[in-house]
Amino acid sequence: MPEGNDQIAQQRIGDVRPTDIHEEMRRSYLDYAMSVIIGRALPDVRDGLKPVHRRVLYAMQEMGLLFNRPHKKAARVVGDVMGKYHPHGDAAVYDTIVRLAQDFSMRYPLVDGQGNFGSVDGDPPAAMRYTEVRLSRIAGEILRDIDRDTVDFVPNYDDSTVEPASLPTVLPNLLVNGSAGIAVGMATNIPPHNLGEVVDATVLLLENPDASLEEVMALLPGPDFPTGGFIHGRRGILDAYRTGRGLIQMRAKAAVEKVRGGREQIVITELPYQVNKAKLIEHIASLAAEKRIDGLADVPRDESDREKAVRIVLELKKDEPALPILNSLYKLTPMQSTFGVIMLALVGNQPKVLALKEVLRHFIEHRRTCVLRRTRYDLRKAEERAHILEGYRIALDHLDAVIALIRASRTPEEARGGLVARFGLTVVQAQAILELRLQRLTGLERQKIQEEYQEIIQTIERLRAILGSEALLRQVIREELVALREAYADPRRTEILEETAEISLEDMVADEEMVITVTHSGYIKRSPLAIYRSQRRGGKGMRGMETKEEDYVEHLFVATTHSYLLLFTNQGKVYWLKVHELPQLGRAAKGKAIANFLALGPGESVGAILPVRQFEVGRYLVMATKRGVVKKTELMAYSNPMSRGIIAVNLDEGDELIVVRMTRGDDELFLATRQGMAIRFAEDEVRAVGRASRGVAGIDLEPGDEVVAAEIVAPGTTVFTVTERGYGKRTELEEYRLQGRGGKGIINVRVADRNGPVVGVMQMRDEDSLMMISQTGKVTRLRVREVGIIGRATQGVRLQELEEGDRVAAVTRLAEDEEANGNGGGAEASGAAGEVAGGEG
């Protein structure tokens, strides 16, 4: 190798410095992270802008693209920003301009765009060569006084010019327009707010720095999104304002409208912030196709336009309730979205999570600094002008001498020196006199100079007063904020609603009445009440449930889909179910095994079922067993559901719980037996005991007899008794005298081979209807008024025509005869608790 090359190689080897790779990676990554955090992703707490936003606005100001000037091509702005301030590619700069111009992204757009700047459907904007831009009027408030030494300027990326480190904004932009960005290891997500409310809160803290957060939130209750909609609940807002972090639940604004044919439609007019309208419609259509949202008559229709803004129409099928579908939409689609607030901003080039009051205080301090610097700048300019005007006054007082001196001088320098020497002027004053135009020597112009001098002296006094008084300084800030509010404030768009519970499956289910059927072998289902049409007395009935040959329906009652089912087992335990959790099946379907819903033990079966709409203090459950034992316990003792069930009553060996009723504590009880006996006694003869207690004797049974029904006496009713062979009768309640608890009772019905043992006993009114179901699953529904009233010791009349070997299995009472209310299926269960084995809960 030649000597020269060897020296070069040695020199290169000498430049190599050993470095640990993990140390180099750590240092380089930290440099990169800080560059992203400070230079790209996070806004400054002072003006609420990221560097690219600041550079775009400043470049447009420098280009003269003010709100009252013509629009210019966006490509010109992009080129200027890239060339002078932001060397990161045209896409980043143009995307920034587009967002600043979108009224659905910015609460108060800072760029006035002309052309296609995208839409809430996610449509992309037109290319920068087609769109035109200029600053919006409110953007001028962010750039106001930037030429009056209000902010620091720093060198640009190549030291060819300077750019502002922040903008001297009068607008509290960080809160008003919000900000979103992902840095390295951190992110910011600040929601937009209403300008008027932010200004009011700022003024409050300006006047009372110790104001509480509650006082601030009285003026600034929460975010105000450009797309409107609702905010549900204030807890997330309070968390965000107190700690800088919180979850805000947003919902679309929707209304239910009536259309022709008695149908309804859901109309969505406002969307949660940053929700894509086209994707939302596509999502709803997909859920409807998958049957996850049922009840839509057609695909969603987008009727949005420039006048109507957002308008999405969802037509519903006839008789479909709108509320459950709307709840489903909130639960399953972005119509309900969460805005995760992270109020992270740069404070002195350091990222910091800020509470609301901290953000406002930093803005106030920024305004204080800007006003102070502007006042000092104005004072300096005013003093300089006053200095020159004083020189003019001296010259005017010695006008002839000044003119003569200037005429006698051979050069401007000689004249300037002569003025300084003869009249005691400064060089600046002498130069200004030499540059004075002759027209200023007229009498009128001389008067104007005198008036200008007096005005400038007053201005200097005012500026010095501001610099010398904190109160005056804050007054100036306040006046500017109030003027901003008067010029730009508008009504709130997003309505804040009080806290609501999380949408549950129940909220997505229509609150309608269901017929609940349970078979002897444990199959359960629910079916809409309306599918069972009313029939005449003596009819054969319609198919109500398919059952196995050896199975039959044991319980039949009516309850709403939002009711609880308290399921009491033959072993004295109670379980909970919601009606809407049961399978909704057709009239002839047999249902699903109840073991799929309850964790029943060996040999345990459901003996009594009680629908409960809600658990109330002061209500009681009265239980009756086959052996005539009655027990009373407060309803609230059963209000805590447990999947494994809890003890409801302590039973004797061989006894079973058969009936449960809800009472007010001062009712009368009515027990009826299978062999036709009945007893009526006061409830207060049975004292309330705990869940695990046994109870007391309600009726003294004959051998082989058992209790089949227990009722809460309701005045004005008749006692309706149904027997196994389809016979029944009505008897006046007054024929059953009040007796003491524990007696044998009196005859309720004559039991014989013709009518068979008693199946159910219930109280009826003339307007009620009766539903009967046989062991083979046939259902008959008839009006009570069709059955005549007869005495106690009779066998009754035929109610249902049964086939050979078939028997009546269960009966229930339906309130409000369908013909009376004219809706062909609007019967409803009497009482808050519905029906159990032919009685009221």
Can you put this structure into words, describing what you see?
- Residues 816-841 have low confidence and may be disordered.
- 30% of the residues lie in helices and 24% in strands.
- By secondary structure, it is an alpha+beta fold.
- Helix 8 packs antiparallel against helix 18 (470-488).
- The chain folds into 4 domains: 42-169, Topoisomerase II, domain 5 (Alpha-Beta Complex), CATH 3.90.199.10; 253-334, Gyrase A, domain 2, CATH 3.30.1360; 359-488, Topoisomerase, domain 3; 511-840, DNA gyrase/topoisomerase IV, subunit A, C-terminal (Neuraminidase, 6 Propeller), CATH 2.120.10.
- Strand 30 (668-673) and strand 31 form a beta hairpin.
Secondary structure elements and pairings:
Elements: H1 3-15, H2 21-41, H3 51-62, E1 72-73, H4 74-84, H5 90-101, E2 111-114, E3 132-135, H6 139-143, E4 153-155, E5 162-164, H7 173-176, E6 179-182, E7 187-190, H8 195-207, H9 213-219, E8 230-232, H10 235-243, E9 245-251, E10 253-258, E11 264-270, H11 277-289, E12 301-302, E13 312-315, H12 322-332, E14 336-342, E15 344-347, E16 350-353, H13 356-397, H14 399-408, H15 412-423, H16 427-434, H17 443-468, H18 470-488, E17 495-497, E18 513-519, E19 523-528, E20 542-543, E21 553-560, E22 564-569, E23 573-578, E24 592-593, E25 606-612, E26 620-625, E27 629-634, E28 646-647, E29 657-663, E30 668-673, E31 677-682, E32 696-697, E33 707-712, E34 718-723, E35 727-732, E36 746-747, E37 758-764, E38 769-774, E39 778-783, E40 797-798, E41 808-814, H19 818-821, E42 835-836, E43 839-840
Parallel strand pairs: 8-17
Antiparallel strand pairs: 1-3, 2-3, 4-5, 6-7, 8-9, 9-14, 10-11, 11-13, 12-13, 15-16, 18-19, 18-21, 19-24, 20-39, 22-23, 22-25, 23-28, 26-27, 26-29, 27-32, 30-31, 30-33, 31-36, 34-35, 34-37, 35-40, 38-39, 38-41, 42-43
Helix pairs in contact: 3-4, 4-5, 8-13, 8-18, 13-14, 13-16, 13-17, 13-18, 14-15, 15-16, 17-18
